[in-house]
Structure formats: C-alpha cells, structure tokens
Amino acid sequence: MTLRRLFQSFRAPRAESAQGLERGREPWLLVGLGNPGERYARSRHNLGFLAIELIAREAAISLGQQRFKARLGKGDLDGNPVLLAQPQTFMNLSGESVVSLLGYFKLPPGRLLVIHDELDLEPGVVRLKRGGGDGGHRGLRSIIELLGNANFLRLRIGVGHAPQGREPVSYLLEPLSASQMAEFQPQLQRAVQAARAVINDGVERAMNQFNQRG
Question: Cα separations (Å) of 108 from 2, 105, 114, 121?
C-alpha cells in the first residue's frame, strides 16, 4: 500500500477519534519507541516506552486502548490535549503505527514528538532535536521512510555507545538490573519535564531550556 493510500484510509470523519480530547484544540502526539514484550521491557532500547508510561502516570492517562498497532491513551497533560502511544510493531516497523495515528487524527508532523534512546548521547543527557536523519536508529528510520518527512520533533535519551567489543544491538536490548534501571530514573524524569515544556511553553523555549550544555 502506498503512503497516499495509507493516509486516505484514515480520512473518514473522526467523531469517535475526538473522544477524550477538547474539540477545537489540536493535540500533540507523543510516541515512545521500544519493543513489546517482557523480554525487552527493561532495556536501554525501551526508554521511550518507559518515558511514555511515566507521562501517563503523572497525567492519569490510561494506555489501555489497543489501536493503530499501538498501546494508546488520550487525555490532558497540564491542561493540553495529548495522545500517548507505544507502537507494538517492534522497533523497525514503528512507522506503521505512527503514520496511521497521524493520518487518523489528521495531525501534521509538526505535532509529533518521538521519544527514543540515543547512542550518541551519554547516559544522563536529554536533548530535543527537530528534523535530521535517523542516526542509525531503526525506529526513526521506519517513521521517516513511511511518513516521507523527517521534520518532526525528537526527544533523545542518552544511553552512550556500547563498550568496546560489544555489539550495539546486544547492548541496547540486554535486560538491565534494578540498580541500572534506578540510574536512568532521573534522566527519564527530565525527559518527561522536557516533553511537558514542549507542550506548555513551545518548542523553541523548550529547546533553549533542555539543550543547554554543562
């Protein structure tokens, strides 16, 4: 199916799709990248999933819907309408879910924030980025290829490069211990703060705040 046909299949009237969202206000779509299943639940590659779960808890939004190949939640974050999604397609097919969501809810790429792990940032670092390539991240690659547009916002959670002699894939997918997971909690909380800043204060102000070096 071509990208145009895929979008057209979600162009029907969306009375149902607005449930839980304030009419007349365009929501943000926040997508956390990861892999479904307990095997990957506590891995570096699933930090996007974990950030979405933390946002959902803080905003009291249920992720109980299973639609568009994703776990989906609708509600308000700090008084602003949002959609929260965790694609369930496995990482390298994430774009299938994201394109379907954008098409159905009639949202432009400018209202998409993708939260993902980033090898090129050290652990503890959180950065916002708009546009650019996929940097070798297969989830981003899938979104860019199927959407045909790279001009969306990314929230990058640093995990650092794999140690010498380790394959990046095994490094990203290995289960983390409880102590390792605890080390990521402040970073995940900062990622949530960055997402809230985007929605509350705008992209430029959020980038100025969270992309400071040091």
Answer: 18, 9, 13, 28
